[in-house]
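[Q] Does anyone have a clean structure-token version of this?
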Amino acid sequence: MQKLQGKVAIVTGSASGIGAETARVLAGHGAKLAVADLNEAGAQKIVDQIEAEGGEAVAVQVDVSDEAQVAAAVAKTLDAFGRIDILHNNAALVAEAENDRDLLSQEVRHWDRTFAVNVRGPMLFSKHVVPVMLGQGGGSIIHSSSGMGVQGEITRTAYQASKAALISLSNAIAAQYGKQRIRSNALVIGLVMSDTGALMPQALKDVLLASHLTPYLGDPRHIADVVAFLASDEAAFVTGHAMAVDGGFTSHSPTYSSFMAMFAQTGDNAL
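[A] Here you go.
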């Protein structure tokens, strides 16, 4: 039996990248999917792919920062499938990343929009899904945070602050509703070669790879498989956790890559 058979999932930001792969993987494990995205045509494309593989899915157009639209998206999911067992809060603002640099260059307009999508959005979806899960006797909520949410970085100030807030939100949900069998976990995601990551200059990829403990950078499937685990009963005792899915990027000393280069040059790993 597929481990998500009979379950219904909402995946936000699922018209492309990590969200799209997650929707496909959850469907492959037997879940019925609400493919939620601002890009309705892109969401429908993922629905078509899921249905072509024998799954069930519905496209839901939504601006995650708008409460009325979020409520309507949840209602559409319930109309289609009658329940909601899994919520993956994956949608994030990336389109204005070129404006998100150091603190002194921050514009309040951009800061507020980043938090509206990256924090208000997950809060709103959780707010409207939790009552459904309470009525069903439980559920699993997974939030896509980032390694930038647990480390200081020299750029993308708004993004990293929003992803730190998302971890705190996840912990709050876990604490408030755990006794009612609702689990909430956050993924601390590293660099993934999705639609945007694949466009990075090779020199930048090389710098980042040098600080990974794996010999490769991330793939959307790496994230999707962990979401499927946390969504399933296999993770019944996992909640309130920020799980690193980053090839070890956040696990080691900042001097790791420099020492590796030095040891390779000297042929000795003595300090």
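[Q] Thanks! Anything notable?
[A] The chain is about 45% helix and 15% strand.
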